[in-house]
Amino acid sequence: MSAAVKTVMTSLPGKIVSYDPATKLATVEPMVHNGHALPPIPEVPIKWPRFGGYRLVGPLNAGDEVTIHFHKWDPSRFRVSGEKSQTNLTRDTGIYAYAVPGSESETSTYNGGGDALLHLGTDDAVTEIKVSTNSVTLKAATVNLTADAPSDAAALASKVKTAIEALKVGIDSLGSAMDVLAPGTSSAVALAMTTAGYSSAVASTKFKMA
Questions:
Q1: CA dist., res. 167 & res. 208, Å (int)
Q2: Kind and range of the H or E element at 174?
Q3: Which of 15, 93, 163, 191 is most enclosed, with most CB atoms within 10 A?
Q4: pLDDT of 91
Q5: Is residue 19 within 8 Å of 26, Cβ to Cβ?
Q6: 3-class DSSP state for residue 23?
Q7: Per-residue pLDDT tens for 71-127?
Q8: Three-class SS string for 101-167?
Q9: CB 74 within 8 A of CB 91
């Protein structure tokens, strides 16, 4: 019995050979063996995290690491229906593998956490989302806050303020010049600027960009 148990595989590290996002099936190459290299396993379902109406998916490229797991019983009927079903015991000798994306080797240099934040981003942290208990920080060359293709750009408060102040200087100069023809024009212009809200802050205290 012990010899038979030693031949049973429960999980193995592997690497993606190819992946079809339409079917969510991959060809996966096992990366460890007992002296007899295992061939790539075709049509392996990729198990992306999915729950509560949400999912986390991404590209899987050749060479990306996964962990290969093996079902004891054929799960095909459940995969098709999503309902409880009796397994086909005549297929009890199959290799019913699925793979979970994730790195097991120590060749990656990504940040392993430790700062009490949830991290989601590229391995080099050039693009990253960091979530704490009361804030979300986005770091990226471009951030698109839209459901569709972006058509307009957000303004930075510092640049908006600089532009408004330059405009005010120009309007004040024009008002002063108009005082020659219509005394009191500059005072009226200043009042109009204040009434329009020029003195109020232009920056959000909840949403910040850099």
A1: 24
A2: helix 157-178
A3: 15
A4: 60
A5: yes
A6: coil
A7: 888 888 888 888 888 877 766 556 789 999 988 787 766 666 678 888 888 888 889
A8: ECCCCCCCCCCCCCCCCEEEECCCCCCEEEECCCCEEEECCCCCCCCCCCCCCCCCHHHHHHHHHHH
A9: yes
Model confidence pLDDT, tens digit, residues 114-148: 788 888 888 888 898 988 888 888 888 887 777 66
State both tokens at 35: 């002296």
Q: Determine the Cα–Cα distance for residues 49 and 22; give it in Å rounded to an integer.
A: 16
Identify the CATH homologous superfamily for domain 2-101.
Gp5 N-terminal domain (2.40.50.230)
Residue with the bigger pLDDT between 199 and 184: it is 184
User: Left if phi > 0, otherwise alpha if psi is -120 to 50, otherwise beta: which for 31?
Assistant: alpha
Q: Helix crossing, 185-195 with 157-178: angle to 10°?
A: 160
Task: Compute, in degrees rounded to 10, the torsion defined by CA atoms 130, 133, 134, 140.
Answer: 0
Structure tokens at 155: 């303004």
Q: Residue 25 and residue 9: Cα distance in Å, rounded? A: 20
